[in-house]
Amino acid sequence: MRPFELSLAAAADAIQARELSPVDLVDSVLDRIEQVEPHLDAYVTVTADQARRAAREAEDAIATGHPHGPLHGVPMGLKDLIDVAGVATTASSLVRADHRAEADSAVAARLRAAGAVLVGKTHTHEFAYGLTTPQTSNAWDRGRVAGGSSGGSAVAVASGAATFALGTDSGGSIRVPAALNGVVGLKPTYGLVPRHGVTSLSWSLDHVGPITRTVEDAALVLSVLAGHDPRDPASLPAPVGDYRPGRDTELAGLRVGVPRNYYFEHVDPEVEAAVRRAIDRLADLGARLVEVEIPMTRYVQATQWALMAPEASAYHERTLRTIPDRYQADVRILLEAAELVPAGDYLRAQRARTLMRQEWARMLDEVDVIAAPTVPATAVPADQETVTWPDGTVEGVADLYVRLSAPANITGVPSLSVPVGHDSAGLPIGMQLLGRPFGEATILRVGHAYELTEPARALAPVV
């Protein structure tokens, strides 16, 4: 196995055992970037020289008996909303073309302290305001969408162009591209991972989290990222531990909620079949399946957009007036339209969010996790704007992809997307595991148990 094909856990263990050099690993990933990037366009910036210097320093530190941390020498990509000192943060937008970060974001600083090596900044749908990342191609089919807005991060991980990456998620932007590219994506509990130094889309919905090859890898990264930072007003002083799951696949006594409404409505039959097979696998591992009723579903879409749109518009108010021509048309239209949203609608959405959180808390008293599709359909062709369901319902692609992921952002609960197979066209399918606030250890345990019953996943066959 070539170094770029290794999972994060395998690479970290090999480096600690001195069976793999950080220099060899970083060189392998950089070579892979050079090979696949012309086909995928996952990166805004590749920091090759900086990465090679950091790899040599990591190797020297090991030689002198001073490894930096659990991610020592492991290559990563960071979504280009995340500040790294001295590196451009463009948000994949001409609006930020000349911006260079003066200091590390909280998450970049924690990853650096843990020894991770930055190989580049990955593409986002402009300012994270979209679900497709149009400049980036799906790792499994170049003619299809990558998903967004963390499309570059998911494609980089799926293709071997990063050992792991970070994304952000305001309505599904970690989990959607993870599902569409066959990798793992974790949106943590709101407030668990600090957002200081991360460009905002919607402050009350924004999360930062890992995109990885395996659930174990996601747990390793979360253990580094989680923890209070007073510079983020939403950051919570919650207890943080080692989230890395064990090798036990036994789920006896665990209650898995299976939605009887919402999550399996207007879902592609192949997606539903794959997710239900995965849920049955959890039952085979000892979990007890419990039907649950998802509350307040009629308010999900309205609440999501009534929160996100005004907050995004407020963030961009100055540049939207001074340099509107530098925005892509789809994002500019959304930002301008949001200025017409009445304050009363925003306040009603906040009230709806409060009620939804209360109802979800009651539901999660009855089960330990909820299992459902991550997205209703696999990756659509890049030029497709709508999906028509068998009953004649027409749904826009953005609404399609955000529909099943938005509840976790509105309520703030943690959500993990795990690959559970492919459709007949060979495109990846994801299952979403949702848990109680700060229940990351539980959803990671369930996802890891499922993963251990499946053959090891291969990288996307890009070239």
From TrEMBL:
Pfam family name, one: Amidase
SUPFAM superfamilies with a match to the protein in the record: Amidase signature (AS) enzymes (SSF75304)
Descriptive protein name: Aspartyl-tRNA(Asn)/glutamyl-tRNA(Gln) amidotransferase subunit A
Residue ranges of every copy of the Amidase domain listed in the record: 24-444
Organism this protein belongs to: Streptoalloteichus tenebrarius (strain ATCC 17920 / DSM 40477 / JCM 4838 / CBS 697.72 / NBRC 16177 / NCIMB 11028 / NRRL B-12390 / A12253. 1 / ISP 5477) (Streptomyces tenebrarius)
Coiled-coil blocks: none
